[in-house]
Every structure is written in C-alpha cells, then in structure tokens.
Amino acid sequence: QLVESGGGLVQPGGSLRLSCEASGFTFSNFWMSWVRQAPGRGPEWVANINQDGTEIYYVDSVKGRFTISRDNTKNSLFLHMNSLRAEDTAVYYCSDFDLWGQGTRVTVSS
Amino acid sequence: IVMTQTPVSLSVTPGQPASISCKSSQSLLNSNGKTHVYWFLQKPGQPPRLMIYELSSRFSGVPDRFIGSGSGTDFTLEIRRVEAEDVGVYYCMQNIQVPLTFGGGTYVDVK
C-alpha cells in the first residue's frame, strides 16, 4: 500500500513537504509519480522519478518550484513544494498507477 | 499529448453495454510494440483505480466485462454488461511521453 502525509493549509508563497510510505511491494523496482486532483477536476500528473532517482520529470506548471525525490532504503517518496500558489490546491496522490494512496490534501490560501 | 474523451457522461441500464472513446493527439504506439494507454475508474472520495493498462490488459481483479481496444490514436473502453458497481468517472491516460496526460473523464451513471 501507499500512504501519503504532509498536506495541510499553507499561505501563498509557502512551502510543504509531502511524503509517501510504501509497503507490501519492492518499492525500489518501480517508477513512482505524484498525481494531483483539484476540487471537481480530473487527475493531473505532477512529476515522476525512476527507480534510482536518476530520471526525473515535471509538468511545466511546477518546474522550478517542486522537487520529487525518493529514499529506497526507507521505501519513501517525497515531494518538496515551494512558492505555492492557489492553483496548487488539490489532493496529492503518490502512485505507480497500479497502486494509489488515499491522498493528502493541500490547500493554498491566505 | 492531448487526450480527448467522449461522451462527457453516459447513462446506462444494468445489463446493457457502454462504450467510452478516447482519442490522443499523437500515436501512443511505442517502438516496443506496446500501446501506452491506461483506463481508470474513480468513485467519489476515492483515488483512481487502474482498470486497463497497455491498451487491453485487464489489471488484477478487474472483471472480464471490461474490454480495452483501439490502436494508434483511437481507443475504446467497453463495458459489456454494465452493473451497478460500475458507476463513476472513467479516465484514459497516456504514459508514452511526459507530461503524462489524462482525458477529461466520462461519468457513467447506472440507472
């Protein structure tokens, strides 16, 4: 399973660090993604990272603000989010697309 | 790559078939011979659930009434005999090229 944490309410321009803890499968064998879903909208892929962290990709809207990383020794995926904007408000899921967490809610508001 | 789904919503009688179309702006056929289109079902308050991967492969636990088909840029998810539990929003997604992109979704109502 995948369990996300770290969401919350943050002011515009603020920062958050999301975490995702994996269990029940060999985490280090899989590409992992962060996918977000704004209220009433469809899913939007945010970023992904390959098995050893040497390949990383982002959607244009978060480039330079978000950083995805992983720690295979701790079966964990991370998303560091800086310079947050109102439009980043969403539920953030970690996923390898076979498996999804329940998500963690991020609200950017003053 | 833009993924365009139709219809936006669909109302189906139990036991009847349903069909959802997804068109991509570029071919999703990779040089490895695989077509990189996925289908998900999302119910309210839940994360998306993988139903079909690589065009036509059913994920573990998905009933065989769900059938993915198509080629190149045109794809279809068919539900052969809709059941009440099939209600929700269906999304197609491509993962051949970043940014990975989803279709706009099709809401299936079972009346």
Task: Explain what this protein looks like in three dimensions.
The complex is a heterodimer of chains A (about 110) and B (about 110). By secondary structure, chain A is an all-beta fold. Chain A is about 0% helix and about 50% strand. In chain A, strands 2-10-9-4-5-6 form a 6-stranded mixed β-sheet, with no helix packed on it. A 4-stranded antiparallel β-sheet of chain A has the order 1-3-8-7, with no helix packed on it. Chain A is globular and about 40 Å long. Chain A starts with a strand and ends with a strand. The relative contact order of chain A is 0.33. The model of chain A has no long low-confidence stretch (mean pLDDT about 100). Chain B has about 110 residues and is mostly beta strands. Chain B is about 0% helix and about 50% strand. Chain B has no helices and 11 strands. Chain B has strands spanning about 5, 10, 20-25, 35-40, 50-55, 55-60, 65-70, 75-80, 90-95, 100, 105-110. In chain B, the strands form 2 sheets. In chain B, strands 2, 4, 5, 6, 9, 10 and 11 form a 7-stranded mixed β-sheet that branches. Chain B is globular, with a radius of gyration of 13 Å. At the A-B interface, β5 of A face β4, β5, β9 and β10 of B.
End-to-end CA span of chain A: 34 Å
Uncertain residue ranges of chain A: none
Oligomer: heterodimer
Largest sheet of chain B: 7 strands, mixed
